[in-house]
UniProtKB/TrEMBL annotation:
<dbReference type="InterPro" id="IPR012675">
    <property type="entry name" value="Beta-grasp_dom_sf"/>
</dbReference>
<dbReference type="InterPro" id="IPR003749">
    <property type="entry name" value="ThiS/MoaD-like"/>
</dbReference>
<dbReference type="Pfam" id="PF02597">
    <property type="entry name" value="ThiS"/>
</dbReference>
<protein>
    <submittedName>
        <fullName>MoaD/ThiS family protein</fullName>
    </submittedName>
</protein>
<dbReference type="InterPro" id="IPR016155">
    <property type="entry name" value="Mopterin_synth/thiamin_S_b"/>
</dbReference>
<dbReference type="InterPro" id="IPR052045">
    <property type="entry name" value="Sulfur_Carrier/Prot_Modifier"/>
</dbReference>
Amino acid sequence: MAIEVRIPTILRTYTDGEKSVTGEGSNIKELFEDLESRHAGIQDRLVDGGELRRFVNVYLNDEDVRFLDGISTKVSDGDNVTILPAVAGGSGLDASPGMLR
């Protein structure tokens, strides 16, 4: 079963710079275990304590797996999985008119 996994720039050091890799498994957990077998270290960046890390978003065919079955979400041959790190932060400045110069 081949599942395409899109890798964000920050994790491409684990995939030798590849933007996309293929993996196998019947659910997201097994898919990540398969990726780990070929791209050592990547699973620790995605999973913590058997659950998706808080600041990692995973989409199955453009649907957030947190609204499906999380790490237990079933995957099938031909599916696309996208991994996106959550973006947070900001300057902390008041953005009221006249405050930024």
